[in-house]
Amino acid sequence: MAIRPSKIICVGRSYADHARELGNAVPDQAVLFLKPPSSLLGLDEGISWNPAWGSCHFECELSLRIDQPLKDASSPEQALAAIGAVTLGLDLTLRDLQDSLKKQGYPWERSKAFDGSCVLGDWVDASEIEDWQQAQYQFEINDELRQSGNTANMIFDIGSLLMEISQVFGLEPGDVIMTGTPSGVAPLHSGDQLKMTLKGKTQDFVWNTWVK
Asked: How many other CB atoms are found less than 10 A from the CB of residue 87?
């Protein structure tokens, strides 16, 4: 990224099917949490985590880069105008640890914001998305389709979601929004070959990485 983000804002349970697959309630407002800039990992570095932390699940997500300051947006259209670039990312989740923390009523940061938990593809211009309510992407492991995302299936549309986020967090150029994952999440395993594909206006954009 040209500008290191001041923060990475993630949206939980933005697809009803994903909320249900984990036994969570479908929310009536956006579930937000943060990852620090130190969580960023390059695609060419390969994914790894401490096995003592338990299983690590993939969550492929449409991710947005904010290129204009945005605070207290008054309309979805104003919020959408602040998006400069788009990519796909992996919100890596230490699921066993997250479940344990939830049961104890503790925050999730250890399971969601650890170093290397945010894997982003290269940025492409936001103009590649013709319709923010119909953006399509998919995630494969070892050439097997594991997740298929379409923003039409999100509980909150991208513009409304971004407007709500801006009313909670003032957004600065370079900040990243990970918009949530569809159903199909599962553990990663050593040696897995990962492929993320975003359908753009002019072409399909593909990013690859692997699990060490």
From this structure: 21
